[in-house]
Amino acid sequence: MQRRTFLAGSLTTVAVGALHPAATAHAEVAAVDDDFLTVLTNANQVQIPLVLSTYQNASDSIRTVARKARRLVSGYAWERSSYHHDASLLGPLQWLVEQLAARQHDDGLYDVGNLHSPPDSAFAIQDVCMLYALLDGQPNTEAQRAILAKVIKKAGPALAAGGVHTPNHRWEVSAALARAHHLFPDRRYAARIDDWLDEGIDATQDGIYSERSSTYAAEVTNPCLLTIAWLRNKPDLLDDVRRNLDATLYLLEPNDEVDTTASRRQDQKSVRDVWWYLTQFRELALHTKDGRFTTVAKGIEQRGTGELGDFLAEVLERPELAGVLPAAQPAPADFVQHFPAQASARIRRGTRTATVFGGTDFHDIPVISSGLSTNPTFFKFRQGAAILDSVRLSPQFFSTGHFRSDGLRRTGPGAFKLADEVKVPYHLPLPKRYRRADGRYALTPEGRFYASMDFPHRPKQYRSLRTEVTVVEVGNGFDLTFELDGDETAYAIELCFRPGGTLSGVEALDAAGNYQLVSGTGAYTVGSDRIEFGPGNGAARVAMDPGERYTYLGGSLTPDGLRVYLTGRVPGRQVLTLRTS
Asked: pTM to 2 decimals?
């Protein structure tokens, strides 16, 4: 690997034009962003004592072992670090490197939950390749480099021949192969990279990858595509990353969380922070001169949260990433952004934001599984620190569960419509030609369950429920209009507020964080930020029903937080107003 690392801490210029090999001949010399380097240096110096106190943890996965070694090597190789050439790091580093070799199967792969896993091994091998490159020329590390070289050479053929599980795994394996090929060239590695790339990058016209996940965009797809672009001279891949980062600008919350409502992966039910994107926003700011990317990158640095020390190795490997960024320009903060490919919309007015979501996969694939969007949250709203994490609707209708919209239609500048119709059959006697004297009929799905009833051949009578939710932005909030039509039944609307604030105007149902708005207006307050909601619609209690797919397995869709319920009857119409003050 080309040795373009900051092995002299006094270095004051970098070749910022050389973001990719093809640009090296035309690189311009520019100043180093010392504030950025200080942030990474200090963060890594915080990490190292934690590694030294835990490096022999027997429960660490091989990916954790490799990452701990990377943190030690970053400090050891970086002249500005207080751990530069600190001999006390070499013993722990030796132990970690030996673990990388000892845990490697004869076929070159590792077990990381999955057995003999090429993609999980690739995560570790990327770090191993960085270790090998960064230790080049470092004193007293020849033994470690010799072991690392064997690990890389042993893993490479397995990665070049093996398979994957998920879309992002293709790019993780390819990036690991790109690193291995750069260190120890092997045409098999280059050929497999081209095979995976030939499948096309799985991005929609909105710039969002098929998994719709901030986690896997930030931690896998974007950094891997940038690595492949750099090492395999494929600059076209930068545009895929640029488009994803551009979309991410509209998913950012005022507190630098990233909205994950539409995700198909685990983060559809969790909170994500933007810090994972740091070097991606830096690289694309330098590449495109987009000052909005500068703003996000500098904001991450200034906030200083997250494992920012992990980025030091990337900058030692590619010093151009530490160039002074172009002038900052404001990131989007006043917009209505529609993402048709995932049936979602984001609305932001300064510190007030909202998410509208109708892109669940549940209608096409009625299964609860990783890799599918099944999130029943169709609206989120926040004003500063006052955060309404979810609005959900659950009718009492044959245990079919929460309302999940079948798409999203934009009806005005700040107006959207969500809708779905649920039809549940009663099954009539089989036509005579399908009847059997022995009564043994095919075990078939009914939609909610299975039975030996040969359901597909039976005529049916249906009960139906039509639900429409209209979301309209008003001056200082939103109106949500619920219209439900069909068989008479009850429903509950659930508002889940993030813990940390105070509810008023509601009645406590129990000590577990459940409340009901019976009448009038309720409010949720955090400091000076306040969300008012209402009006209440009576004291009738209606349970949230997650549906038989969950309850049969003992599952739950109860979100964490302070949950306020409003209830009503079908057929009916109800307006929920949400206002800030």
From this structure: 0.94
